[in-house]
Design goal:
By secondary structure, the protein is mainly alpha-helical. Helix content is about 70%, strand content about 5%. It is rod-shaped and about 140 Å long.
Length: about 270
């Protein structure tokens, strides 16, 4: 039937062209963003999963920062403890030299002055071994805790070590000195005990620092795995999209031609009236 009121061919051609244009817009958006799922309307389920994983990745950034902060605090404490250990070794040397009964009093007094200077240095080290307001070796803290999971439900705890003079670890008192060979000999034994205690404290701090480093490395790998997983879910295959783009562009041109032909069909009716 020849009619000028209804052009079914043109309607079909237009519908096909509109579908092609919509597909072309989708492919162009994927190429522009690099994402096959850029919003919830693309794929609600996949988008929700990807967003949850993105939240975990961002949380692991905070976890890594917490681990770095705690590791730095422990490392400063370790540096302070090692400096105290070196100082105690020097103090032992001075006390041992002063325990020699054949030494004259003037020489012993000179050694005592050196000994007291080193003793005071231990106190200064303890006071200044602080990072970001936290000191793990002056007795002001019992422990520090670093985040260990994205949910914040678990943490890594590192116990503090009180390395103050006259404490449970460094048993040498803050006023320790010697005036005789016997007193110096007693201090040698006290320093040896302190050094043994200090070695244990340093071992515990070192283990804590290592555990923080191991967990940070694990968090980094876990975050990378999540990033890869997100990419697998939402990233567009640009090689595939490029091929699809070429195909759609050809279909668009053919659709325009088909619509043009369909629109020209009613003009043939004019031939009936010549």
């Amino acid at each position: 039937m020849a009619t000028i009121n209804t052009n079914a061919g043109a309607m079909v051609a237009l519908q096909s062209l509109n579908r092609t244009n919509r597909d072309l817009e989708t492919v162009q958006a994927r190429i522009n963003t690099g994402l096959a799922v850029g919003s919830a309307k693309d794929n609600g389920g996949v988008y929700a999963i990807a967003q949850s994983m993105r939240a975990d990745v961002r949380s692991y950034v905070a976890v890594a920062q917490s681990l770095d902060l705690s590791a730095s605090t422990v490392d400063v404490a370790l540096a302070g403890g090692e400096a105290i250990s070196d100082t105690l070794v020097e103090m032992k040397e001075k006390a041992l030299a002063a325990s020699d009964t054949s030494l004259d009093q003037a020489s012993r007094d000179a050694l005592n002055e050196d000994f007291k200077a080193l003793r005071d240095q231990v106190g200064k080290i303890v006071e200044t071994a602080e990072f970001n307001g936290t000191n793990l070796i002056d007795g002001s803290k019992s422990q520090i805790a670093a985040l260990a999971s994205a949910s914040g439900s678990s943490s890594i705890t590192i116990a503090a070590e009180d390395l103050s003079l006259g404490g449970a670890v460094v048993t040498l008192s803050a006023t320790a000195s010697f005036a005789s060979a016997g007193e110096a000999s007693t201090l040698v034994a006290t320093i040896e005990t302190s050094l043994n205690n200090l070695n244990g404290s340093l071992a515990r701090l070192g283990t804590g620092s290592k555990s923080l480093g191991v967990h940070k490395a694990f968090i980094g790998k876990l975050s990378d795995a999540l990033e890869t997983g997100i990419g697998n879910l939402v990233d567009a295959d640009l090689a595939k999209e490029s091929a699809h783009l070429q195909s759609l562009q050809v279909k668009q041109q053919l659709g325009v031609q088909a619509l043009s032909i369909a629109n020209a069909t009613p003009s043939t009716v004019l031939g009936y009236f010549r």
